[in-house]
Specification:
By secondary structure, this protein is an alpha+beta fold. The protein has two domains: 88 residues, Nucleotidyltransferase, domain 5 (2-Layer Sandwich), CATH 3.30.420; 121 residues, no CATH class. It contains five helices and 13 strands. The chain has a six-stranded mixed β-sheet with strand order 7-6-3-4-5-8, covered by helices on one side. Strands 9, 10, 11, 12 and 13 form a five-stranded antiparallel β-sheet that branches. A two-stranded antiparallel sheet has the order 1-2. Helix 4 packs antiparallel against helix 5. About 2% of the residues have low confidence.
Length: 269
């Protein structure tokens, strides 16, 4: 505060504003320094200098067509049912996602479609989808398979829950195939065997439960209802049942188990 003489000659007091203004200016400068500067930005995507890697094409889709006359085709290639089952099993072994689509003509009986779905599952498909019905039916076949299946027993893609791998399961089956083939050849040589294209033709599924050391935790057996093979000789199935206990599986590791369904396709040739 300072004193000032008024016109009347007496002293007059008033506030000195200079220090207050100085303080306000200092505070203003501090606030201006501390306020972040906002910069307007706009995103810009520049071409990458890294080489463009083209992803590999998807694996071949497996589609089974069921035509109005009951004929079957795999990826538009006409083939008999036994060859279709063989081709499905062979191709499913080589792919990670074991999916099959069934494309049926709308006039085909439902029982035939169910049979084809069961055939795909027996060949090793984990998922079977039905394509949308089209009035004209599936696309026409553009190829015809040249022949029938050769004689033999052909493993299809296994279905496994647990620590056993597909490769190990396939190896276990392959080691007993000669013994199974001996059973099959003996049954085909039965004098009283009926004649026909589908005699001793079809599929059977081996069911195995494997323990940590590769041991069979349950007797390895033929799965009930897991195939289409009929045995009019009455000798083939008992002979196979004698071979199955000799199957050996690799050790899975401590506390690891697996249940495996191993489909087999039987073709008389």
């Amino acid at each position: 505060m300072g004193a000032k003489v008024s016109k009347s000659g007496g002293p007059q007091s008033e506030i000195n504003m200079t220090p207050l203004i100085d303080i306000v200016l200092v505070v203003l400068i501090i606030m201006m320094v501390n306020i972040p500067i906002s910069i307007e930005q706009m995103g810009l995507k520049l071409p990458s200098l890294e080489p463009v890697v083209t992803p590999p094409p998807p694996s071949e889709q497996l589609a089974v067509a069921v035509y109005e006359d009951g004929s079957l085709a795999l990826n538009r290639r006409l083939m008999k049912e036994d060859k279709l089952a063989f081709e499905l099993g062979r191709r499913l072994l080589a792919v990670e996602h074991k999916n099959v689509f069934v494309d049926a003509h709308p006039k085909v009986k439902y029982s035939i479609v169910v049979h084809v779905v069961d055939l795909a599952r027996a060949a090793g498909a984990t998922q079977v989808g039905l394509a949308k019905l089209k009035p004209e039916g599936p696309q026409a076949a553009n190829q015809v398979d040249p022949g029938t299946m050769p004689r033999g027993i052909f493993p299809a893609s296994p279905r496994i829950v647990g620590a056993l791998t597909d490769v190990d399961a396939h190896g276990s089956v392959s080691r007993v195939l000669p013994a199974l083939r001996a059973c099959y050849d003996a049954a085909l040589a039965t004098p009283a065997l009926p004649t026909g294209d589908n005699v001793l033709a079809g599929t059977l599924t081996i069911e195995a439960v494997v323990g940590p050391r590769g041991e069979a935790m349950e007797p390895t057996k033929i799965q009930q209802g897991g195939g289409t093979l009929e045995d009019p000789t009455g000798t083939l199935v008992p002979c196979i049942e004698l071979v199955l206990p000799t199957m050996k599986f690799p050790a899975l590791g401590p506390d690891k188990t697996a249940r495996a369904l191993l489909p087999l396709l039987f073709s008389p040739g």
